[in-house]
Amino acid sequence: MRWFGLQRLGSLVLCALLIAPLPAAATEVEVDVQLFLAVDVSRSMSPRELEIQRRGYAEALVSEPVVKAIRSGLLGRVALTYVEWAGPFSQRVIVPWTMVENQRDAQAFAAKISTNFNPAMRRTSISGAVQYATGSFTGNGFISNRRVIDVSGDGPNNQGRPVLVARDEAIEAGFIINGLPLMTREGLGASFGIDNLDAYYRDCVIGGPGAFVIPVYTWDQFPAAVRRKLVLELAGRAPALPLHRASAKPKADCLVGEKMWQMFRDRSFMP
Prior knowledge:
Layout: H1 2-19, E1 29-30, E2 33-40, H2 47-61, H3 64-71, E3 78-85, E4 91-100, H4 103-113, H5 126-136, E5 142-143, E6 146-153, H6 163-172, E7 176-181, H7 189-192, H8 197-205, E8 212-213, H9 222-235, E9 244-245, H10 256-268
Parallel strand pairs: 1-5, 2-3, 2-6, 6-7
Antiparallel strand pairs: 3-4, 8-9
Helix pairs in contact: 2-4, 2-9, 3-9, 5-6
């Protein structure tokens, strides 16, 4: 009788476990926009340029216009990540996906950007950065109507898949890509950069509803350019001043970077 009672008790416990509700799955947090900041750290960037970039983004994020833009949305919160990139498989997450909804959050995010200044990495693969960015949104814990990839860089794509292929796939998947071409021509950027980098970004890199390019010609323009770009992206508003808009039919050579690198290899007898 005792064994029968224990057996019956075990059966009741098993039934209770089977009919008990499963733990609720983690829900995604809704935000006004998810913004992937893809920052070029290829070897063409000098140490001074790398530091200016980090400090420029950190200062812009805590500025009053940017914090106001974050708060101006319907929900008053956004999701951000800051990732440095170079070659096709060279991406370095500096700040993972993080929700920002006030000045304190922005300051914490900015502090992580400016804590360490890592060295540059080899080559320039905008296509690799875009492909990595699109995958980063999956399972990041957030959901929004707008998903924006913000690419800054000082030269054209020269490794990995053609940039148009990666760009078009991202647009088809519903992403918006904006550009911040750095036309400062400092360090190795003077050798591997191109004069019409702004047109290259317009024709070959950016795309999606309202996509735009804000070129930087001198480093003293960088802080203001980053602030303006972030305000437009975070607030989701049409710019008051004309910008370089995405072009339906590219006029720039979207393979110019690959051609330049091949010429460099041929001249240097590189394997």
